Amino acid sequence: MVHIVADSTCDLSKELVERYGITVVPLNIVLGDEEHADGVDITPDEIFRWADENKTTPKTSAPPVERVIEVYQSLLQPGDEAVVFSISESMSSANAIFHMAATMLDEDNRIYVIDSKNLSTGIGLLVIEAAILAKEGEPAEQIVKKINELVPRVRASFVVDTLVYLHRGGRCSGLSAMLGSTIKLHPRIVVENGVMHSDKKYRGTMQKVLLSYAEDLEEAMRRAKKDRVFITHSGSDAEIVDAVRDYLKSLQLFDEILETRAGGVVSSHCGPGTLGVLFIE
Questions:
Q1: H-only helix segments in the chain
Q2: Are 120 and 266 in contact, with CB atoms under 8 Å apart?
Q3: CB 196 within 8 A of CB 190
Q4: Distances, alpha carbon 87 to alpha carbons 24, 178, 271, in Å
Q5: Nearest Cα to Cα of residue 267 among 9, 12, 63, 7
Q6: Cα maximum dimension of the chain
Q7: Which pLDDT score is estimated for 170?
Q8: 116 with 151: CB under 8 angstroms?
Q9: Of 107, 204, 258, 276, most Cβ neighbours within 10 A?
Q10: Residue in 167, 191, 183 with CA at minimum distance from that of residue 90
């Protein structure tokens, strides 16, 4: 049996985790002196409240190696293998921790660790593809080969509602944050080659902005794998999410339009109201 494992930044819903038989390893979120396991004992809304009260961004960290070892030991029976996904190694040391745990158990020949070079459901798209291959009986080595071919084809981007959280986390100057709030400026954050950068800025209300953003993706979506597309957000208004979903439905390009809520790690850095459309081109 090939087990599919991913860190919690994959942002897959409980329903999808259960549907595809995925094991999720939580990263840590540190609020002052308190350490929490992402998605286990802390919610994004609790993180937002703490961040606003303390006017700072929570710290996030890779899972402790002991936690990963326990997961490996609980899964691997004789003859089993595991394919493990991490957030981009340029964003976190989680990938190194997954490798370290495999080495400490002397199981490098059965545990394959993939650097997704992505975050959020940019990882989730790859995880689901791997889970489908595993259910079809593909061996781990073949799954890794096929997934690595998909890694550069993942299209992950988000539009940020507020620049406050990016400013608190040192990813946006105070002047930019102030001006952005004043003129309702919303940057598009794109993940490319494992790193994030802003490539466009939109102006106006979030519903108008997000529809423009979705329209800008149409050409790429017409070249996408038709299996699924994700709408992933950090607590956007339902009517805004519905408007984006309705637009995607109108294109009739995808078999499945999946909505997920961003987990604690992604939410900590981007703040509430962020929304992305993610797919494999």
A1: 14-20, 44-54, 65-75, 94-104, 121-135, 140-150, 164-168, 174-182, 206-216, 218-221, 238-251, 264-270
A2: yes
A3: yes
A4: 12, 30, 19
A5: 9
A6: 60
A7: 47
A8: yes
A9: 276
A10: 191
pTM of the entire predicted model:
0.92
Q: How far apart are CA 90 and CA 218, in angstroms?
A: 29
For residue 28 the two structure tokens come to: 């840590």
* Separation between Cα atoms, residue 236 and residue 249, nearest integer Å: 19
* Block mean pLDDT (10 aa), the chain, length 281: 97 97 96 89 90 85 95 95 96 95 96 97 98 97 98 96 63 38 73 87 91 96 97 95 97 97 88 94 95
Residue in the structure block whose two tokens are 């993942």:
154
Give residues with Cβ within 8 angstroms of 198, minimum separation 6: 187, 188, 189, 190
Contact 76, 82 (CB under 8 A): yes
Supply the pLDDT for residue 180.
Answer: 40
Residue pair 213/160 in contact (Cβ under 8 Å)? The answer is: no
CA distance 146 to 154: 13
Do residues 229 and 257 make contact, with C-beta atoms less than 8 angstroms apart?
A: yes
265: left (phi over 0), alpha (psi -120 to 50) or beta: alpha
Which of 27, 53, 62, 55 is CA-nearest to residue 42? 27
Measure the CA–CA gap between 88 and 10, rounded to whole angstroms: 11
Cα 239 versus chain centre, distance: 22
